[in-house]
Amino acid sequence: MDFRLYFRSRRGEMVHLLKQLVTLESPTHDKMAVDACAAFVARELKRIGCKVTIHPQKDIGDLTVAEFAPGRLKDADDEILVLTHIDTVWPVGKITKMPFYVQGNRLYGPGVLDMKAGVVMLITSLRNLHSLNVKPQKRITVVVNSAEETGHTAAHDLIRKLARKASLVLCLEPALPGGALKLERKGRLVVRLDVRGRSAHGGSPEKGISAIEELVGQIARFKRLRTGETTVNVGLMGGGEKANIVAENAWAVLDIRFWKSTDRDRVLKILRESAPTLRGAHLKVSIESTTPPMEKTKASERLFARAQEIAAGMGLSLKGGKTGGGSDASIAAGLGVPILDGLGPDGDGIHAEHEHLLLPSLVDRTALLTELLKDL
C-alpha cells in the first residue's frame, strides 16, 4: 500500500485531531491540565485496541503506557518502544494569544510541533494499522510522558524499564529544521552552586566574607569547563540582602552540555574537586539533574540505514544530524538500545511564539512511521 497517498486523503482528520490536542493545553507543571490531555490520548488509544496502563503520579502528570499487539502474542524482547510526550512549555491560556490556525501548508499553535504532532502521528498510524488489519512484525509499546520538558525521575525510570525490554526505540520528537533525524544529542548537567560567607557592615567589608565575590570567582573558574563543544550557561543566580551588607549567601544554577560521556566525567571531576578560594567561605556543589548524551552507536547507525532504505522505497530521503538539546531519546539511548530520534515532522519555532509545522511533512512522517512500525 502507498501510505503516503493513503494519509494524504486523511489530512483533514489529522489536522482536526491535532487541533483537539493543541487546544487541550498541557504545561508540565499544571498536573490537572496535563492529566486531562493525557486522558484524551488514552481514550483514543483504547479505541484502536491498545491496552492502556496509567501510572499515577503525585508531583507530575500521570504517565501513560499503551501496548499495541493486534492478534499476536510476542516475546518481551520482540518489541518496539515508541516515545512521545504531551507536556509543553506554554501556560494555560496561551492559546488565546497564540491560537491554533492553518496558513497555507503551515500549522501554528502552542505545542503543535513539540510534540503534539508526534502524538497525532502515533494515534493516526496505529488507528490505520488496526483498521486495515495490518500486523506489525513486533509488539509496539508506547510511552506518553507528562514531564519531558523538565525531566522527572519517575518518567526516566519508566522509560529505562521499558527500553531494556525493547529491541529498538522510536522517538517522535520533531525533526531538525529541514527534516533530518537526530542521530546525536548533547548530554546535560544542571548544577547548583551555593556559597555561604559571613555578613558584615558595608563600611567594614574586611570583617565579612562576601559570598557573592566567592560565587563570581567560582563561575569565572568554571570557564575551564568550556573545552571543545562543551558549553556552560549561567542561567540563574542571586544573593545578598542590601547594598550596604556584605553578602552572607549566594547561589547560581548552571546548564552544562556535552557530546560524550567522557566529557561529562571530566566536568564532574572538576566540579567535585572545586573548593572555595576565600578563607572562611563554604561552597556546596549539587547536581540537580543529569541527562546522558545520545551518542552515535553502530546499532543505531544500522537502524538508521534500514530506515533510509524503507524511506527510499516510499520516495522519501532521510538525512541525519545532531542537536544540543536533550530528550527522552537520550534516556533510552543511554542503555545502548538502537534508536531513531526526530521522526516527527519538519517545522520551526520550538518554544517560540512562531512555533509551527509543515503539513506535507506531517503526512509524510506519519506514512514513514507506519512503514517502520510494520516492517522493522
Give the name of the CATH architecture of the largest domain. Answer: 3-Layer(aba) Sandwich
Order of helices and strands: HHHEEEEEHEHEEEHEEHEHEHEEEH
The CATH top-level class label of the largest domain:
Alpha Beta
Overall, the morphology is elongated
Determine Rg (CA atoms, Å).
23 Å
Q: How would you write the strand order of the largest sheet?
A: 1-2-6-3-7-14
Helix content: 25-40%
Oligomerization state: single chain
Measure the end-to-end span.
Answer: 16 Å
Which segments are poorly predicted (pLDDT under 50) over 5 or more consecutive residues?
A: none
Give the averaged pLDDT, no decimals.
94
Main sheet attributes: strand count, strand direction, barrel closure: 6 strands, mixed
CATH topology of the largest domain: Aminopeptidase
Fourth-tier CATH superfamily name of the largest domain: Zn peptidases
Structural category is: alpha/beta
Give the DSSP E fraction (strand runs of 2 or more residues): 15-25%
